[in-house]
Amino acid sequence: MKDLSAVFHVPLGEKIVLVLRRHPFVFLSEAALIIVLMAVPAGGWFLIAHDWPDLLEGPISRPTLVLLASAYLLLTWHFLIAKFVDYYLDLWVVTDKKILNVEQNGLFARTISELELDKIQDVTSEVDGILPTLLNFGDVSIQTAGEKEHFVFEQVRRPDLIREKILQLAENLKKLKG
User: Fold this and answer.
1) Residues with Cβ < 8 Å from 120, sequence gap 6 or more?
2) Do the beta carbons of residue 18 and residue 101 sit within 8 Å?
3) CA dist list (Å): 149 to 67, 86, 97, 120, 123
4) pLDDT band at 53 (very low <50, low <70, confident <90, very high)
């Protein structure tokens, strides 16, 4: 694994064990709907050309239709880019001492939470549905005794292996501390 310690501001002596993102299928399923919605202006154009061809030749109606279609496409592109940014920049970093939750909220806001592994009380993995079962992705929930009681890794690959790894890291840290 590349040395990402400087990127995530991991202190000296800590080692990055896992860097997790949601499964790509999650983004692709959301993007597919937006891409289908991008075809609406083309369908509308053909419908208007078939039923009301005069609208496409008018000095006011044609520029108005082009402007509306362009605005619609620009808006759908914005949604697609926002979904990609949310998918790509939401991530979880597990080190040998803590967990960092980096959550992108919109295009220009980010929240970073931190959880020490020795405060973990319970780790649960959950795979729910046919496609998540076939593609092996799901949620990993982490219960703690701290202020933030619940950390959730949403729709990550191999949730069972991640649960086991986090429990193993927490046990190792507790043995080292006491």
Assistant:
1) 142, 143, 144, 166, 167, 170
2) no
3) 49, 24, 18, 9, 12
4) confident
C-alpha 81/C-alpha 85 separation (Å) is 6
* Bridging pattern class, strands 110-116 and 137-144: unpaired
Coil, strand or helix at 11: coil
Neighbours of 82 (CB within 10 A): 14
Return the pLDDT at 1: 46
Cβ within 8 Å of residue 124, ≥6 positions away: 140, 141, 142, 143, 163
**Edge-to-edge strand list for the sheet holding 150-157:** 120-126, 137-144, 150-157
Rounded-to-integer distance, Cα 123 and Cα 140, Å: 7
Q: Where are the alpha helices (DSSP H) in the chain?
A: 24-38, 40-51, 61-89, 130-135, 159-177
18 close to 163: Cβ distance less than 8 angstroms:
no
* Residue 57: count of CB within 10 angstroms of its CB: 8
Q: How confident is the model at residue 118 (pLDDT cuts 50, 70, 90)?
A: confident
